[in-house]
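Project channel, design review

CF: Before we commit to the Salicibibacter kimchii constructs, I'd like one complete example in the thread so the newer folks can see what an input/output pair looks like. Taking Autolysin.
RD: sounds good, go ahead.
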Amino acid sequence: MGYRDLPQLVDVRGNMIRNGAYSKRSWSQITDIARHHSVSTGNDGRDISGWHANDNGWPSIGYHFVILEDGTIEWTNSVNRIGYHVGNNNTPLIGVCSIGNGSFTQAQEDSWEDLVKAIRETDGLDQISISDVKGHNEYPGHATNGCPGINMDTVRSRLRGGSGGSSSGPPKYGPNNESFASYHDDKWMVKKDSYLESQQLLNRVEDAGLDEDGILGQNTLNATRDFHDKYNISKRGANFYGVPGPATLKKLRELDNDDGSGDNPAPKSGEGIVDYLNRIGVDSSYNNRKSMAESHGITNYSGTASQNTKLLELVSGSGTRGKSSNPPANSGEGIVDYMNRIGMDSSYDNRKDLAENTYGISNYTGTASQNNDLLNELSG
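CF: and here is what came back for Autolysin:
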């Protein structure tokens, strides 16, 4: 499972305050994961992006991921960008910041372990070893820094399966050391509609026999975990194992609506666009892929890896990017008005950077179709 598949991952890259763009790098240049803490509480990635962009004069937030106190992982910068977080060492590093000042919740620690594991399982990043997971103060020139506020030998031991962390047994959550179901039912009461829908779908799809009461009780938790196991959505010990989040609901809705009408199946792990098209009986020639790409809004198709990945997502309906946290667009609202309304820089340069480097809309020139694609991406 790659990091994009984590159920607690939320793609907020388009919602960061930006003064410009960070330099690009290839994934082969990446060797390490650097851990940080925010020295603050109750904040999120957008708050940090304001400090970094406005106070430090950086292009935007320096980290690639931010882990909130409830375990949510915010995806704040594309991994192929060189962030600012460990001076004079940044080019090969992925920066991960946990909100807190030397004290972190169990949910954060579980999500930290999930994220590191998923990064190391991502194609192109599997060169990173656990020994390459380091704290800010373990890099040259930063030995006196108090960041990341945790003993990294302990952190690496947990990643290897030693004592502590989610690998040592059923985790507890929150200040009251509650059970998983109790903590999340209280913490995420705003998701009651999601719980209710998941119960209804589990009853229809899996014949789970659940009370449809919108409460994440033990029966719903167990049924969701069985579903996660069956469809490899989350794994035992992961922070969101048993929570009916976006990935769970998407799969349940897909199965509930499967009427044999011929919708394309999901791609297999590691399957490329050519093998996928061959498997479903579609012409995989370059000319046909080019025609399909252009019909799906991928302009100037030349068969690059990023274009093929995007085409595979569109043809199979298996997009992997985390759900945007931005509000929906109003009826008739254009991209510039939408970005202005939610407080984003709507300049052409920023739209071009977001389109090409965050959302895979190649050769952005501000056409109506490109702007519509960008609006759909930003507004979720």
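RD: helpful, thanks. The radius of gyration is 21 Å.
CF: The chain has four domains: 3-168, 180-241, 273-316, 335-378.
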